[in-house]
Specification:
Alpha-Beta Plaits; 2 domains; single chain; 42% strand; alpha+beta
Length: 163
């Protein structure tokens, strides 16, 4: 089962390494990883997506809580979260196909953020399925490069890792 773990950590050098080392030492695969500062500059949020069973998930949470610098760990409820990722896609786009690519991007509510004579770069924020759908629609034009942020998630409503 795919699970989303939200981890609040001290915003200090080495915290990400400690967290990821915990996963690698025990052979747990990380499906997605995103890190950033929270509303408090001294705290960072690490969002980890893992594919594991309930027993292993409990072990991961307990082991994370033992790490120095970890403030809080919460497994987010799949039915009550908002998840997004940012993807940048550089695609071949000469004058013969540029308009078609732009129309496809508009359907997905993506933005063209760079335009060159032989390529363009598309920015899209959305759920994983949406970003994959856009990629599959434009791959016939020739994808040059893709950069993805990894998934970030928050609980819906007033529920929070802070509560």
């Amino acid at each position: 089962m795919i699970k989303t773990i939200s981890i609040l950590v001290e915003n200090k050098a080495g915290m990400l390494v400690r967290v990821t080392n915990l996963f690698s030492r025990r052979g747990y695969n990380i499906e997605s990883l995103a890190v950033g500062i929270t509303e408090k500059s001294e705290i960072s949020r690490i969002t980890v997506i893992v594919d594991t069973d309930e027993r292993i998930l409990d072990q991961i949470v307990h082991q994370l809580m033992k790490l120095v610098g970890v403030i809080k760990v919460k497994v987010l409820d799949d039915d009550a979260i908002i998840t997004r990722e940012l993807v940048l896609i550089k695609v071949k786009a000469d004058s013969t196909c540029r308009n078609e690519i732009i129309q496809i991007a508009e359907i997905f509510r993506a933005r063209i953020i760079d335009l060159c004579p032989d390529s363009l770069t598309i920015e899209l924020t959305g759920q994983y399925d949406k970003t994959n759908a856009l990629l599959s629609m434009i791959e016939k034009f020739g994808i040059i490069e893709v950069a993805r942020t990894g998934k970030v998630s928050l609980s819906r409503g007033t529920d929070s890792i802070n509560t």
